[in-house]
Amino acid sequence: MKTEVLLIVESPTQLSPREDSVRERLEDVLHYRVSVEGPACNVADYKTAGLVIACAKSVPGELWRAEIPVLVCNVDALRDLGMVKGNSDFGTQRYSTANIGPEAIGEPLPAELTGRQPLTDEQAAQGWAKPGPNALVLATVGGDTTKAVAFAFD
User: Fold this and answer.
1) What domains can be seen in the chain, in order of their start residue?
2) Band of residue 86 on the pLDDT scale cut at 50, 70, 90
3) What pTM does this model have?
């Protein structure tokens, strides 16, 4: 996987604790190079990125067409990307870890990520969703397959 990550946040100059936790884990623990941008960023400027993480409530419209995997951390952005059908297909729950199942390993995730992985330092209200039938579920809340926290579409 490429080592550059585009992190889309509400305000690039003032990260929320959750956004800062995501950035810190990517940089300090996983040693990725992270570019922090706001919702109005030009995704085409980040063609070398291996991953986009959307923490902002809205994302650039062209993101759904990008040839880059997208991890959505804010349930409000799921509608912008066409990843859920309606308001009942997502919600929030307090958690700090996610379970990555073996079906997610290979592409796009390396084998060392299998199992329960920390997302934030402390439990916080975070989103989950029920993606469409063509999605590959990468991570779930506590192994509950009806509550995906990371999923992919081809």
Assistant:
1) 1-82 (3.40.50), 83-154 (no CATH)
2) low
3) 0.68
